Amino acid sequence: MRFFKIIAVILVLLVGAYAASMYYFVDENKDFKIEKEVDYPLDKVFSQFNNLQHFTRWNNFFTSSQSIDIDYYTPYEGQGSAISYVDPKKDTNGEMFIRYENAPRSLRYQLFEDRNENPTVVDVQFKPVSAQRTKITWHVHTPKLSVLRRVENFWTEDRFAENIDKSMVNLKNVLGNKVEKDNQMASIKYDSLMVENDDSQLLLGINVSASNKKEALYKNIVMNYSKIYNYVTMDLGKRDDEFGFPVLITDADNYKDKEVSYFLGIPLSKKFGVTDNNFNFRTVNASQNYVMYYKGNYEGRIRAVQQLIQKAKKDEMRFGDIRQTFIERPVEGQEVNVKISLSVFK
């Protein structure tokens, strides 16, 4: 009995010493600043922060968990927008609000985690460094912690900084895809033959053989695109701004055949294990291409393909596959908007 009393006294002394050290030497809350720069214009960066549906797609706090469930509340964007989240695997939940907005210069977030009634307040400032570069500054004010929990303040800043580092990688991927798509749309010149150098691409898609009868081929393309899109977005959890335009690859002259074999895929940034055997990866090597942009019914693309082949023959160039990049998603009953590329070489 005497032994247990001694142990109890020692524990009381240790807890008292710990509480005293926390009280006198550790602040009850933390204030710190983190700065980053990204190679994208201010308006595109700001729109990824003031729209919480966009924000949760790249912020590592939300993307790092497969089990998190997020609810969004109107107005969805800007001051007054809010979300709540629950993560059953991590046994955490919380709410996040945009309390203030001075577009496109600053935002104030409040984050309530678990049962803490005091929020973490984050002021984010955006400053254009140049037309294509933006500086982002986070001013973080953490909630007051009880004496026994103040030890958490030792790693709060490091944890927040690590989350921002990972989030910036995700944000750059999202903005990279978005800006690439915007630039491509802005540079389109229809029915003009051009020469372009295309970088290599990694595509996830399917190999298909289909009838080349009128309208049957395009219906088949629409159907298979839906399969790929659903797999990438629903099974793999990718968002629209995480991948590029769909690409169809086929032999240059098989538009004449009764049956057409093609590969249809969606560009992704990296390869990973695919559990569904219907889908596979295909790498498209960097190449020089003769290119035409075409808009109209799908059958009308054949004239553009013929013009590209004639140009290659006239220039005494050898040529490979035809690639059709759908600038707008293929939809049954609608006109197509495609970039048609013929890879050429000496």
UniProtKB/TrEMBL annotation:
InterPro entries: Polyketide_cyclase/dehydratase, Reg_factor_effector_dom_sf, START-like_dom_sf. This is Effector-binding domain-containing protein. The lineage of its organism: Bacteria, Pseudomonadati, Bacteroidota, Flavobacteriia, Flavobacteriales.
